[in-house]
Every structure is written in C-alpha cells, then in structure tokens.
Amino acid sequence: MTARRPLDTATSLHTAAGLLTAVSLLVTFRTGVEEGAVALAFGTLVAVGELTLPRCGPGSTAGGPGLRETAPLGAAGALSYALLGEHAGHPSHHGVAQTVSVVATASLLGSVPHLARGQGPVLDHLVRRVLAVGFAAVCFQPLYHHGAFDHGRGPAHALVLLALLVLTVLCDAVVAAALAHSRTGWPFPPLLRDELRAVPGIGSAVCATGAVMALAVAVVGLWALPVFSVPLLLTQLSLRRYAAVRATYRQTIASLARATEIAGYTPAGHARRVAALSQAVGRDLGLPEAELTVLEYAALMHDIGQLSLVDPVPAGATSGLTAAEQRRIALLGGAVVRQTGAGAQVAAVVERQADPYPEQPVAARIVRVVNAYDEKVQGAGPGGPLTALEELRLGTGGEYAPEVVEALARVLSRDCLTLPKAG
C-alpha cells in the first residue's frame, strides 16, 4: 500500500486536471466563445510563454534547482486571464470553463515542441497550469459575475487580485511538490519547502505581473498585454540562458571527474554512481536544493585528489587507506577543485570528506558514506549491497555518521525491497 501512494497521488492530480479540461471544453463548445479576440490574445500569450521554456533533458526538471516556474510569461498570462473582469471598460463574460479551455489549449499547443523532443516532465507542467488556472478562475469569476467587485474597484480590487494570486501560487507549490514526489519518490516535505522558498522570487514577479495585466487590460484593452509582457519575456529568456549555462557547467564538472577513471585510478562510473546516490541520500535527509547542487559537484569530484598518487590504489578504494593518507588525498583534491572554479563550498566538502564525521558538514558525511558503500559493493557478488550496508553500520561507531548510513538504507530499500530495515 505504501509503495503505491505516490502513484495514486499523481494519478489523482492528472485525472482531476484531465476531467477539468474535458468538462471545460465541452461547456465552451456548447455555449460558444465569449470575446473571441480577448481569448485569442491571451491564448497566444500563454502559448508563446510555453514555447520559450528552458531546454532540459528527459526526466529532468526544467530549469534545474531554484527555477520553479520556468514559464513565467505563460503563468502570468494564464492567471491574468483567470482574473480578468473587464476589457477596455466593458464587462467580460468568459467564465471558468472558457478560461480553463483557452489556457489548457494554448499550453498544450505551446508544449508540442517540448513533447516532441522529450524534454522533461511536460505532462506534470500542464497539470500544474490547468489546476492553478482552474483554482484562480473558480475563486474570482463567480464573485465578479455576481457583482462582488461592483463597489470595490481601485486599491481594494487590486489587493483582492494579489491575494488570490498569492493563494494560487501557494496551492501550485503544493501540487508541484506532490507531482515531484510521485515522479521521483523523494520525500515530500523537503520538496514542498524548496517550492515555497522559490515563491518570493519568480513567484512574486508572476503574481505582480498577472495582477497588473488584468487591471491594465480592464482599463486600456489588449494593448496592455505586449507592454507588460516584455519584462517577463526578457526574464524568461534569461532563465533559458541560465539553464543552458548550468547544464554546460555540470557537464564540465562531470568531464573533469572522469579524469580519475580515464587515468585508471577509479573504476568506470564510480563518480556518477556516488553523485547520484549522494543526491538521493541528501534528499532523504531534507537538504535544500542549493546544498544538493554542492553535494552533487563534490561527489563527482571527490576522488580527484587520487591523481597525486604515484601508484593507483587497487580499485580506487580509498576507504581502506590510513586516516592520514585519506586526509592527504582529500586536501589535494580540494586544492584541485579550488583551481577549477567549482566553488569554495564544493572544495570544502571534498577536503573534509576524510575528517572524523562529528567534525564534517552534512555533505561531506554523505560523500564519505556513499563512497565507502560503492567501493564495498563493487565486485562483492549477489550479497554485495547487504554486506556493504552491514559493514557501514558496524562502522557507525567511529567512521561513518549513523544518520547518513540509515538514510542510505532507506534510499536503497526503496529500490530493493530485500534490504533490511534500519534497526
């Protein structure tokens, strides 16, 4: 039962978004489109926003850590249409169904190139967009059409729009964290915390622009859309460029980390395995995205100090060396990392991975445990994972941080149900 809950959550959200879209389209086809020019203008804005999403590979999150809303122009346009009460001084008549239909159709059309290239979790992105717009429209449109804002134009109206947008963004953060939890199996609380941390950044820009667009279109008409879209479009293009720079930088770090493999100091794929497993352990322990990035880079480069050795360590297994030799290699590795420009935090983790664990930062504790696990498990036969984990548990008295070892056991148990439970 427990193993199926994430899938059930994702299925429920996908089903809810699908049903909302289907019902909205049926109602819109039956009643017809109100203010077709306005619907076309906002739909075009949303589609353009989706088209300029940052490129990312399959299975990755668009934009990477910290870039929670990767299509701010599309989000702002969709939300402003949901909160649009008037057009050039004339009351609008589109309701919840038309709002969802226009936004869903435009988002899908704008996402076609990304779907064709298999770029990232586009379906989850569409689900978020539909549910967020549906929530905002349900909150605003019935109130507006029943005259709730007839005597509240001006500052009060703007504050109501901002409040609804903030509430919508917060709900979207919960949905995004739930979908990420379903897709990856990572713990929900850290994912939600990271989503909420991103709200004051790009989320505040989306909220402000969405509110201003709705108010401006109500006064001056559709001419307000291109004027207020330019800042967010430039921001979105900057996010796209930043995502490309991050991807290139990570590829550079990964290529540098392979130097020890090419030189024969470590087994093939060791750095990638340690990096991937370290990130999984870090997420289980609740590390924020910024620390997870540092952890990934440090794990990729944790063995770079072995290049200083005259004779390679058999199978690159530094965990069997003396504490003094491990520290020497770690310090040399940290010095190399500092020269690469990877950052002082990454270098510090590499330097301190051989220190006594009570003195280590969390990232260094994780790298130490995961590195030892990967070294012990390689070539150990079918019982390798079980044996390696038990050896790590036996070493928690002095070498390895107990909480990290147990987090590793939890991560492994999610992938292999034959592993013993902690304790």
Keywords:
single chain; 423 residues; mainly alpha; 2 strands; 1% strand; disordered C terminus
Fold and architecture overview:
This protein is an all-alpha fold and 423 residues long. Helices cover 70% and strands 1% of the residues. It has helices at 5-31, 36-51, 72-82, 96-117, 122-145, 155-184, 188-220, 224-257, 259-262, 270-284, 289-300, 323-340, 344-352, 362-377, 384-394, 402-415; strands at 86-87, 90-91. Strands 1-2 form a two-stranded antiparallel sheet. The longest helix is centred in the middle third of the chain and has 34 residues, at 224-257. It is elongated and about 80 Å long. The two termini are 22 Å apart. The relative contact order is 0.09. Residues 1-6, 56-68 and 417-423 have low confidence and may be disordered.
What is the strand and helix layout of this fold?
Layout: H1 5-31, H2 36-51, H3 72-82, E1 86-87, E2 90-91, H4 96-117, H5 122-145, H6 155-184, H7 188-220, H8 224-257, H9 259-262, H10 270-284, H11 289-300, H12 323-340, H13 344-352, H14 362-377, H15 384-394, H16 402-415
Helix pairs in contact: 1-4, 1-5, 1-6, 2-3, 2-4, 2-8, 3-4, 3-5, 3-7, 4-5, 5-6, 6-7, 7-8, 10-11, 10-14, 10-16, 11-13, 11-14, 12-13, 14-15
